[in-house]
Amino acid sequence: MNLATGLKEARLNIPMEGEEDAALEAIKGLPTEQSVVVVEQPEQEYYPELEEPALRDQVPIKAPSYDMAGKVLPPIRNPESADEMTTFQNSLLAVQSRSEGFDKALDDLSELAHDIYYGVEIVKHHGVVEELTCFTLGVGTGKNPQENDRDHKAALILGSALQNNPTALKELISSQDHIVHPTCLTDSGNGIDFVDTLRSRIDQESNPSTLKSKVVAISSLLRQPSFRQDFLEKDGMNILLAYFLKEGEQFHIVRKKIGQLVMDNFLDEDLGAAVGEWPQGDITPANVCESNDRRLEDGCWERHLLKYVTSSPKQIWAQELLAALNKQRGKPVAADHKEL
């Protein structure tokens, strides 16, 4: 204690008289050298197969498959707007039953089909898919497909539901027969063939906007491998070439969509195209492609494209399509003055 302040203070470690000698006497005789003692361990056998890899190198033997689309969730409900889900469900029912609200239902589905969730739900309803297919084809529906642009809207819904929607494409597998062979209200009462019906109505397709929507729907359907195989086996590409050759500037939008269809599904691998499936064979001679009975052959695509590129040099997409076809065939088409 500090007598001057009355506070307790720590005493400095200053040896007092006699303490230092006592401390030295206590450690006298102890060793002052430092050393390390090694204790021998018994030898252990090494089993490399039992050694576990580092955590970063550990991969599950059966890793789960990766789903790029992920889980498709219903859209978040907006309390300030009408109930979309109720509208959607009522529209599906109206289309399948062909009720009085049929045309309004097509309008509503045209707006909603762009959403991934609603697109998947549309494809899940086989009856709705079949009705939309019949209207797209323009046959046997009990209602005039051309009235109120019904065929246009039906094609738009189909194309929108499948476009950029891998989950909907998976669902399409179970409903494909309702598209390839839909049971429309025909005189025979039997199912019709999708490709054959398209071919039978080539000359009746006079509305460029409607035909454009149908081409988009076909392009979306071609993403499904089994539908694509059926389409190619039945020479469906000849139908698209017939659409391409329709005369008039008003069909430029149709030609461009057909070009996108060919690139997306058959020529551009970066876009997920099935490269190598089409075209097959060589380019058809120019004089053959000028004949009415053979001008739609697969080997005539480059011939007709060359004429179009020559007459419409500003259509860059057509030049790119021609170059891609030439690359796929491995033999570029040469300009022939007779066909120009």
Written overview of the protein:
This protein has 340 residues and is mainly alpha-helical. The protein has a domain at 85-246: Leucine-rich Repeat Variant, CATH 1.25.10. It has 16 helices and no strands. It has helices at residues 19-26, 84-97, 102-112, 116-124, 126-137, 150-162, 166-175, 177-180, 194-200, 208-221, 225-233, 236-244, 252-267, 286-289, 301-311, 316-329. The longest helix has 16 residues, at 252-267. Belongs to the SIL1 family. It comes from Amylocarpus encephaloides. One of its GO terms (cellular component) is endoplasmic reticulum.
Key features of this structure:
single chain; 340 residues; mainly alpha; Leucine-rich Repeat Variant; 16 helices; 0% strand; elongated
Question: What's a concise summary of this model?
Answer:
The protein has helices spanning 19-26, 84-97, 102-112, 116-124, 126-137, 150-162, 166-175, 177-180, 194-200, 208-221, 225-233, 236-244, 252-267, 286-289, 301-311, 316-329. With 340 residues, it is mainly alpha-helical.
The CATH homologous superfamily of the domain at 85-246? Leucine-rich Repeat Variant
Q: Give the H and E element order.
A: HHHHHHHHHHHHHHHH
Under CATH, the topology of the domain at 85-246 can be stated as Leucine-rich Repeat Variant
Quick check: average pLDDT?
85
- State the helix count: 16
* SS-based class: mainly alpha
Low-confidence stretches: none
Give the CATH class of the domain at 85-246. Answer: Mainly Alpha
Percentage of residues in DSSP E strands: under 5%
**Could you give the distance between the termini?**
118 Å
Instruction: Please tell me what the overall shape is.
Output: elongated
Number of strands: 0
Let me know the largest β-sheet: none
**What is the CATH architecture assignment of the domain at 85-246?**
Alpha Horseshoe
Question: Share of helix among residues?
Answer: 40-55%
Rg on CA atoms, Å? 38 Å
Keywords: Endoplasmic reticulum, Protein transport, Signal, Translocation, Transport
Pfam families: SIL1 (PF16782)
Family: Belongs to the SIL1 family.
Subunit structure: Interacts with KAR2.
